[in-house]
Amino acid sequence: MNEEKVMTARAQRTILVTGVNGQVGFELRRSLQGLGRVVALDRAALDLADPASIRACVRSLKPAVIVNPAAYTAVDQAESDAAAARAINVQAPALLAEEAKRLDALLVHYSTDYVFDGAGTHAYREDDATAPQNVYGATKLEGEQAIAASGASHLVFRTSWVYGLRGRNFLLTMLKLGRERDELRVVADQIGAPTWSATIAALTASVIAQGVANRTDFADWAREKSGVFHLTSSGSTSWAGFAEAIFAEAQLEHPPRVIPIPSSDYPTPARRPSNSRLDGAKLARTFGLVAPDWREALALCLASR
């Protein structure tokens, strides 16, 4: 395929992005520019709780890539609303995968460290045994399994502790409380990698770009690369350590004192894993991509305010 035909094929390729108003969806809309015709839809245009809406949308657009950052992420609420969580986290990705298989398209989906039990101190690899400890984690794992069972070409990116400058997340909560209080009690016995939504979007775009660039058959590439990958910032910290770093990087005039506490002092309906570390070696080995250290990403995020 000559260069002109490659450029034409790229321009005609449609990339469907769900949940465009979410943290990751918003960033994907920007990061995926140039890789095809990006169609980014919010819930009003594509309701993932409505199977008919999913089928109609995908069959109308006929995308070559479906990127699905949309999810039911209310971890504690899921404990009492499992049906709603399962509709978005299991049934919707299963249907997207079914439609992707029908089109020979690539489905890019996002999952979570919550599929593991959080025991031990090692960074989890993709082939480690899963054992979710709450409804949210269980539904995300079921979503992964449904995608794999569909036979569709897929990239499932497990990530953790996602934050950004929009929506609801730990960063924005800390910035707000940091200006209102003199001290904050923050959990210190849960360890993970705070991951900027823009990092997730940038690495996703870099992966897709590898398939797009100078490829005569994107579908063949997608089938070859299919699988689960861990995508988080490098390094790790506790929630208390993350809070301290936020206040230091934000340069608040009067930052609050962070008081480390155990998880038992902050009970929640859903059990959280104490170890959320994910090993990114497979991502690096397969695509040559290594996420920045979480502190570097935090600095970039706050500098972009």
List the helices and strands and how they pair.
Elements: H1 3-12, E1 14-17, H2 23-31, E2 37-40, H3 51-61, E3 65-68, H4 75-78, H5 82-103, E4 106-112, H6 135-150, E5 153-159, E6 162-163, H7 170-178, E7 183-187, E8 191-192, E9 195-196, H8 197-212, H9 218-225, E10 227-230, E11 237-238, H10 239-250, E12 257-261, H11 281-287, H12 294-303
Parallel strand pairs: 1-2, 1-3, 3-4, 4-5, 5-10, 6-9, 7-12
Antiparallel strand pairs: 8-11
Helix pairs in contact: 2-8, 3-5, 5-6, 7-10, 10-12
| CATH architecture heading | 3-Layer(aba) Sandwich
For this structure, the quaternary state is single chain
Radius of gyration using CA atoms only = 19 Å
Please give the largest β-sheet: 6 strands, parallel
Low-confidence stretches: none
Summed up, the helix count is 12
CATH class: Alpha Beta
Mean pLDDT: 95
Structural class: alpha/beta
Write out the strand line-up for the largest beta sheet, numbering strands in chain order. 2-1-3-4-5-10
* Helix proportion: 40-55%
CATH topology-level fold name: Rossmann fold
Q: End-to-end distance, in Å?
A: 43 Å
User: How many DSSP-defined strands?
Assistant: 12
Inertia-based shape: globular
The fraction of residues in strands falls at: 15-25%
GO molecular function: dTDP-4-dehydrorhamnose reductase activity
Function: Catalyzes the reduction of dTDP-6-deoxy-L-lyxo-4-hexulose to yield dTDP-L-rhamnose.
Keywords: NADP, Oxidoreductase
Catalytic activity: dTDP-beta-L-rhamnose + NADP(+) = dTDP-4-dehydro-beta-L-rhamnose + NADPH + H(+)
